[in-house]
Amino acid sequence: MKVPVQEDSFSQNENAPDTPGRHRLRTRTGRRGTYLVIGAVALVGLGLGGVSVATADHRAPAPTPAAVDFDAQARAEAAARADRSVRESTAPVTPSAVPASPSATPASPSPSPTTASPKPRPTKTATAQPKPKKTAAPKPAWVIPMAGAEITSCYGPRWGTLHAGIDFAMPNGTPIHAAAAGTVVKAGDAGDGYGNSVFIDHNNGYLTHYAHQSRLIVSVGDKVTAGQVIGYEGATGDATGPHLHFEVHQGAMWNQIDPAPFLRARGIDVAC
């Protein structure tokens, strides 16, 4: 559609001669003409749009406009700020983010589990425990000369005379032991009724006498210890049967004392 352009005004050409009854269209196009063209085009567009809208109204009802939430943007910004604060509070704190206190001692960084080398486990070597040494019990200074023997006669009067010792009866050939350590000062049969006998000097003012032995195994001058075998039981001399006649002499030979209290004082109990 062509829109007739309306000039601002009709005027005579200034340079043309003055001809009565004739006008000439002005050739200069101004801004006002341009604006009029643009406005006309806009009016045409609006008219067409109005027709389309009117046509659409007859076809179907217009959709209801959606409600506009004017607070949506504000709520979205608040949710973003809350989410950011939560992430910042749960984020691991790095040493540079925490201000160092003047009095606080800087903690040494703990080694990473992936970089820390495992500590070697100490190897246990089986070591043999030293067995406690069994120390032998000290030997008593005095022992019974014939352990387990039957006492057949004690020290005291017998048959009108002094029986100066204790008789230990065991089977013939039973070993006889030195009652204490000392030196053999007499060994053999002197023909005095004691048969084969042995005297031991204990170097403490006492001597012991072992009579009626069947066999001697020590000699004069031998050093003996307590419990050492010095001979064997018999019935030599004035004896009616095999037995050991045991005496204790105090200070000198033939000064006999009762052996029973003497032995008891040294831890040996005899039934006399």
Any overview of this molecule?
The protein has 272 residues and is of the alpha+beta class. The strands form two sheets. Strands 1, 4, 5, 6, 7, 8, 9, 10, 11 and 12 form a ten-stranded antiparallel sheet that branches. Strands 2-3 form a two-stranded antiparallel ribbon. The termini are far apart. A hairpin with a 4-residue loop joins strand 7 (196-201) and strand 8. The protein is rod-shaped. Helix content is 20%, strand content 21%. The protein has a domain at 150-264: Glucose Permease (Domain IIA), CATH 2.70.70.
- As a whole number of angstroms, the C-alpha radius of gyration is 74 Å
Per CATH, what is the topology of the domain at 150-264? Glucose Permease (Domain IIA)
CATH architecture designation of the domain at 150-264: Distorted Sandwich
The helix-and-strand class reads alpha+beta
Helix content: 10-25%
* CATH superfamily membership of the domain at 150-264: Glucose Permease (Domain IIA)
Largest β-sheet summary: 10 strands, antiparallel
- Mean of pLDDT: 75
How would you sum up the global shape? rod-shaped
Return residue spans where pLDDT drops below 50 for at least 5 consecutive residues: 1-29, 47-58, 95-99
**Number of helical stretches of at least 4 residues:** 3
